[in-house]
Amino acid sequence: MALRNAPLWLLVLLAVALLDSCEGASTHSMKYFYTSISDPSQGLPHFVEVGFVDGQVFVHYDSHSQTLQPRVSWMEKVGKEDPQYWERETRISRDEEQQFRDHLETLRNRYNQSEGLHTWQRMYGCELRRDGSKRGFEQFSYDGRTFLTFDKETLTWVAPDPQAQITQKKWDGLTRSNLYLKAYLEKECFDWIKKYLSYGNEMLLRTEPPMVTMSSRTEVEDGMETHICRVHGFYPREIDAYWTRDGEVWLQDTFHGFLTPNVDGTYYYWISIQIDPKERGRYRCHVEHDGLQDPLDLELKEFTDSKSNLGLIIGFVVAVLVVVGVIARIVVFIKKRQDGYKAALRSGDSSSSSDQGSNLSI
Prior knowledge:
Elements: H1 6-19, E1 28-37, E2 47-53, E3 56-62, E4 69-70, H2 76-81, H3 85-110, E5 119-128, E6 134-142, E7 145-151, E8 156-158, H4 162-172, H5 175-199, H6 201-204, E9 211-218, E10 225-234, E11 240-245, E12 248-249, E13 254-256, E14 260-261, E15 267-275, E16 283-288, E17 296-299, H7 307-330, H8 343-346
Antiparallel strand pairs: 1-2, 1-5, 2-3, 3-4, 5-6, 6-7, 7-8, 9-10, 10-15, 11-12, 11-16, 13-15, 14-15, 16-17
């Protein structure tokens, strides 16, 4: 990963982490994010495309490199099976980049805005959940606000404001394209998940048990105790972690962190609780994960005040909240529609294709 891309990568990764809660997260998923920025700063590219399988980055393209590249070793198998794959997908990504820039200019004029920082984004993909249920989705956003969302059941687009309704009317009339999109989101996308699982089974189907640590402190104001249960280094990301009191799930005075990806592909999560120290013996941190033979129940013991550890945690939480504020402006999901070219190109041999393509205007 190039250093110049680090700020945008951080936003994208955090966005993905925020999209999936700890409970009910998808068992397997494939998602693509596209972000175009009208006035990038600090060396950020104008356009970035990132693909994720099970929350792990596996392909990347940006307007600096102008090349779609694998981000995991097992993706090299795709090129061996289809020697034209990377060249073909790079050409498609370059087309996407140009169309995203054009759409940014169109939307700026439509909203009667001055030049400056504006974003046009797309997210699409599918999730195969642990209970066997499936979900396919496609969304667009402009300047961090939802612009259009595809409704697979009605084959129509949902628009939240009058400016988006202009595009909605155009895209609702593209029956053939919308039928293909529905088929992609309901079948082809899941076929690609299965193929990628076969390529990267050692990484994607592995199990890493969580490490659980506790830190605590006494609040100066009221003498209450704050306990933080940190769960880290686990994979896959599905995990159940919660506080119990007297053996029952206890939600009162409980705070939850974000399910966050680590740089090594594992995940991190935390929960905290504030209690009366006299009742410390009634509480446990309960953790269940596929990597554990049996659930963990960690009791709260007499502690030595670890304010320094808590300070680090609080600092991390504050930093995440700051980034989340930026994500609300920079990384929300979007899409750029097409309807002529790319149909044959992407309909059967491209995992990044959620529509029939085209140079559709917005």
